[in-house]
Design goal:
Oligomer: single chain
Largest sheet: 5 strands, antiparallel
Shape: globular
GO molecular function, one term: DNA-binding transcription factor activity
Strand content: 5-15%
Number of domains: 2
Number of strands: 5
Distance between the termini: 47 Å
Order of helices and strands: HEEEEHEHHHHHHHHHH
Pfam families: Cupin_6 (PF12852), HTH_18 (PF12833)
Number of helices: 12
Organism: Pontibacterium sinense
Helix content: 40-55%
Structural class: alpha+beta
InterPro entries: AraC_lig, AraC_XylS_family_regulators, Homeodomain-like_sf, HTH_AraC, HTH_AraC-typ_CS
Protein name: AraC family transcriptional regulator
Strand order of the largest sheet: 1-4-2-3-5
């Protein structure tokens, strides 16, 4: 029997990437003890650069820039400003980081693709650590850390087009309706339907940026018409989906 997967349905919607960076551009840094080539510490700042000069106990051995697939990725607002992971006792992650460094140093044919894939694995491992650790504030990571609420969140991520009812979410979570509604707000910081609407808007924005028709996107995510989607879209993002599609098309023409 396969184990419950909290992350794949969310991560699969975004193109995570990692590329080598200088000290001024990095938001992912791997450290090792002085005089050693064995990594023992990872720092990640999802939204900003890391200013971390060499210290007595740690020496930067690999720097990279991570891209989470756009600002709409809900993980960006859910993650703490700085993630620190001690990997000294994690042989698999140590091996992964050493492979990352070797590829970044050698820069042989196809190294960019290899870095992306290895970097994505590292970011997933960092996310797992955050979920296992739990969050102190209400939000997505806190919800994914909860054994019951996470099942409802994953259902939303996997089937955003479904006409959901709170009763169905409660059943998936194995809770009474009243307890589920109370716990979801307590853990995530918003109601299940509010989170569902926000997730649909994130996906709708991606589809619009790819140039899909507004009416098609509206039907896909349960909106009765293109006008209904446009109203919800404007409330969420401050502009119409048609305006965003035009901007995306113009950006492609200038590349």
């Amino acid at each position: 029997m396969s184990r419950f997967d909290r992350l794949s349905a969310l991560i699969s919607r975004f193109s995570l990437s990692v590329s080598p960076a200088t000290g001024e551009e990095a938001n992912l840094i791997v450290f090792s003890p002085p005089g050693s080539d064995v990594p023992n510490r990872v720092l990640l700042s999802p939204l900003r650069l890391i200013c971390s000069p060499e210290q007595a106990d740690y020496v930067p051995m690999f720097r990279a820039c991570t891209d989470w697939g756009g600002q709409a990725n809900p993980l960006l607002s859910a993650l703490p400003p700085l993630i620190e992971l001690d990997i000294s006792d994690n042989a698999e992650t140590v091996m992964l980081v050493r492979l990352l460094k070797a590829e970044g140093d050698a820069q042989r044919c196809g190294f960019g693709s290899v870095l992306n894939r290895l970097g994505e694995v590292l970011m997933v491992r960092l996310l797992r650590a955050q979920i296992e650790q739990g969050a102190t504030e209400p939000g997505l990571l806190n919800g994914l850390s909860d054994a019951r609420i996470s099942r409802a969140i994953v259902a939303i991520h996997e089937r955003p087009e479904k006409v959901w009812r709170n009763e169905e979410f409660a059943q998936i979570a194995g809770l009474s309706l009243s307890r589920f509604a109370e716990l979801f707000v307590q853990v995530v910081g918003e109601t299940p339907m509010a989170y569902l609407r926000r997730w649909r808007m994130v996906l709708a924005r991606q589809d619009v940026e790819r140039g899909e028709r507004i009416q098609t996107v509206a039907r896909r995510y349960g909106y009765g018409s293109g006008e209904a989607l446009s109203r919800a879209f404007r409330r969420q993002f401050g502009e119409s989906p048609l305006a965003l599609r035009r901007e995306a098309a113009a950006d492609l023409q200038t590349v």
